[in-house]
Amino acid sequence: MSVGTTAQPARCAVHPARRASDLCPVCERTRCAPDAASYAARGCAACATIQTTAPAAPATEWLTRGALAALTVGYLGAWVAAQYVDTQYFALIVPALIGLACAWAASAAAGPTSAGRPPRVLVLIGAAAGVLATALSDRLVPGGQNLFVPVGHRLPPYLAAVIGAFAWPVLFGPPKSRRQPVSP
Prior knowledge:
By secondary structure, this protein is mainly α. The protein has two domains: 9-51, no CATH class; 59-171, no CATH class. It is built from six helices and two strands; from the N terminus they run ββαααααα. The protein has helices at 33-39, 45-48, 59-81, 90-110, 120-140, 151-171, and strands at residues 20-23, 30-32. It has a two-stranded antiparallel sheet. β1 (20-23) and β2 form a beta hairpin. α4 packs across α6. The protein is rod-shaped, with a radius of gyration of 29 Å. The model has no long low-confidence stretch (mean pLDDT 82).
């Protein structure tokens, strides 16, 4: 008597007790006839249950994350900016960089959005955090600075912080998607 190999029929990858009827069109695993009837072109029981994307976070969550991150970066940046409060050029450059960093932190902490670009509200949160950081840097200077007087001396750093925040999506944000022209 010769020892021969008997070919075992293929089994379903998900239900090994069932014989395979065909291959899954998605993952190319063997699948049984009930799976083929149930899932058809969607695949099989194994690949149909795999979630490809995580659900989007609710607006309150990404707004909170963005605000906390922007305020944290602004707080840390205020300590750096306090060293440059009364210098000629750095009194404008440093608040602009802090505004830029606050807008970055708000956008990065909020995570990806459906449009790919950070929502405008996150840039506004970054601008507000930049202004608060600039005000805090004025108070951290030994002896403290008056935040409102004279306006010509104190207003430019606040404007620089806002401009820095609004420069974030322009300089470092993802590019805008161009609309495809409609062909007649």
